Automatic annotation (TrEMBL):
Keywords: Oxidoreductase. GO terms for molecular function: nucleotide binding; oxidoreductase activity. Residues 1-118 form the Gfo/Idh/MocA-like oxidoreductase N-terminal domain. This is Dehydrogenase. Belongs to the Gfo/Idh/MocA family. It comes from Kribbella qitaiheensis. Residues 126-246 form the GFO/IDH/MocA-like oxidoreductase domain.
């Protein structure tokens, strides 16, 4: 199959290389708002190059992958859907709730399959945890702890268009929480702080945050994260049940050191970036997209799934700003 890719930045080049290596993909065609950047990626990887999005979408594609800036996601999804092309788009769907809802309505009315990129759903650890929760092997779940700690902060120019810490970073935790438990968030209480570079605060953002979520079955979930975790990229989830407990991301690469005498675990090299941590999951995710394109698989993460995670992120941001508990029913329908 012939797959187009819009956006040749870091994650775009990474996805382009992954797509090239998939057995189902015959050719990848790359474009970017910066044509020279797209041309360079295409040349380095031996791919085709398109001068702009319109040329790309009219080049006989079977599917399209969107890895452009977040601010362009909604419009690009709209163009791909109008062209009737199955689409994969990195999260989020849009920068705000209203535009996200508009995209959901557009996609669902069109019937064109649109797969949103939350790669943790394809990580084997999270899949195993979901199986144990849903099989009842852990008994009833009373607490879940989740964290996303980046090894180093993004550049300053990224922050104004990122959507803020909850919408950009912990939104992954909110999505995978729904995937693992099959439950919905009903309320949140969140807080955050600017502990590092001043530019986060200058844009009304934070670089460290925490939230207490309550699920519709009464389960408590604590979610925390930071942009400053020089020990390594650290993404984990602990699921605590009445009959047993499991941890995702607890292995030789975990970016923690024990304070107990004589304990050497974990002894491996911590992951440096999210691409290191989730490389196999990204391959599995794009493989799933090719199956969606082929018509052999339903969309594994829909625009409505993305909307639900975004609503939780919005609720956390409102809670942080107003210092109060926010019910999810306050954040759109």
């Amino acid at each position: 199959m012939r797959i187009g890719l819009v956006g040749a930045g870091r994650i775009g080049a990474f996805h382009a290389a992954t797509l090239k290596g998939l057995p189902a993909v015959d050719q990848v065609v790359v474009t970017d708002v910066d044509a020279s950047r797209a041309e360079l990626v295409a040349k380095d990887l031996g791919l085709e190059f398109a001068a702009d999005v319109d040329q790309l979408l009219s080049s006989g594609l079977d599917g399209v992958v969107i890895t452009a800036a977040t601010s362009a996601h909604a419009a690009l999804i709209g163009k791909a859907v109008a062209a009737g092309i199955p689409t994969f788009c990195e999260k989020p769907v849009a920068l705000d709730l209203a535009e996200t809802q508009q995209v959901v309505a557009l996609v669902e009315a069109s019937g064109v399959p649109v797969h949103i990129g939350f790669q943790r759903r394809f990580d084997l650890g999270y899949q195993a945890a979901a199986e144990q929760v849903r099989s009842g092997a852990l008994g009833f779940i009373h607490h879940i702890r989740a964290n996303t700690n980046d090894a180093f902060p993004p550049p300053q120019e990224y922050i104004p268009t990122s959507g803020g810490f909850f919408r950009d970073c912990t939104v992954h935790d909110f999505d995978i929480l729904r995937f693992v438990t099959g439950r919905e968030v009903v309320s949140v209480f969140a807080t955050g702080a600017n502990r590092g570079e001043a530019f986060f605060g200058e844009y009304g953002d934070v670089d460290a945050a925490a939230a207490l979520l309550t699920l519709d079955d009464g389960t408590f979930v604590s979610v925390s994260g930071t942009r400053y975790n020089a020990a390594g990229h650290d993404v984990r989830m602990e699921v605590l049940g009445s009959l047993g407990s499991v941890a995702v991301g607890l292995d030789e690469h975990t970016a923690l050191k024990s304070a107990e005498a004589g304990v050497s675990f974990p002894g491996g090299e911590p992951h440096a970036t999210f691409m290191d941590r989730f490389r196999p999951a990204y391959v599995a995710e794009l493989t799933a997209f090719t199956e969606v394109v082929a018509g052999s698989r339903e969309v594994p993460c829909t625009v409505r799934d993305a909307l639900q995670a975004f609503r939780t992120a919005d609720a956390c941001e409102l809670s942080r700003r107003e210092n109060r508990v926010v019910l999810l029913e306050e954040i759109g329908a």
